[in-house]
Amino acid sequence: MDVRISIIGTGLVGSSTAFALLSAGTSSELVLVDIDRQKAEGDAMDLNHGVSFVSPVQVRAGDFSDCKGSRIVVYAAGANQKPGETRLDLASRNVAILKETIPKLQKACPDAIFLIVANPVDILTYAALKESGLPSHQIIGSGTVLDSSRFRFLLSQHFGVDARNVHAYIVGEHGDTEVPLWSLANIGGADLHHIDFFGKAPLDRQAIFDDVKNAAYQIIERKGATFYGIALAVRRICETILRDEHSVLTVSSRIDGLYGIKDVCLSLPCLVTAAGRETILDLPLSFEEERALRDSASSLRTVLNDLGY
User: Would you state the torsion angle of the CA atoms of residues 79, 151, 299, 137, taken in this order, to the nearest 10 degrees?
Assistant: First the structure.
């Protein structure tokens, strides 16, 4: 079965995502679209030179009309986050770009799942919903899938266990107001209050969360941008959709009523299927976590209001 994935924006995140998807072998065709056509063509050439090492796949540069028939559209277009700049500072610039782009994509592939990756991802996911008029399940953001992976990695390092056996979520905004769900974090089914048998030093929860929340800033300070981690997160989301895995991932999607939150896009654990975001899990959060989540939603709503949404 032919599976086309289109990637809009071939900057560091878009091109790294193309490489991750090429390596995964989950699609038969990758279409790369960028305002700089030569950049997209160069990436396509570079990736095609390695196709003898992976499952059969065609990679080509194109324009919006070439996205026709795409199963997934990965939206990674927009201005880059500068050192010292928050994701929300990017909002007005990248919303303007999205407003020009989404109608063209919707015309080319109205049935695709739109996966928003560009930042600020929660704001852009909401803007894409409003500008397109598509149903909420069809437009999702990468959200805190990467943040949750960072959280699990740091906990795995502390306790000396495989990160795949750490179950922990970051929810809310993908950014400064994100919320760690300590009350639900567990390793192999045991919550963090019952794993003293690992013989490790006491867990400094604030230090670990600070490292999660500030990871992007720390990486940007050192190398100018983050792109490998998010590319792997996007690969994971795409695999879940294409394989109809019914996996639980903290994608960003429209919330309207859950935990007292109305009409914003943010991340909560969701069931992700071939249809996109199918179900948002209603988890038993602690009082403090629920309050922090509402504060995160309020912060996002303020930005949306400023943008006219």
Answer: 80
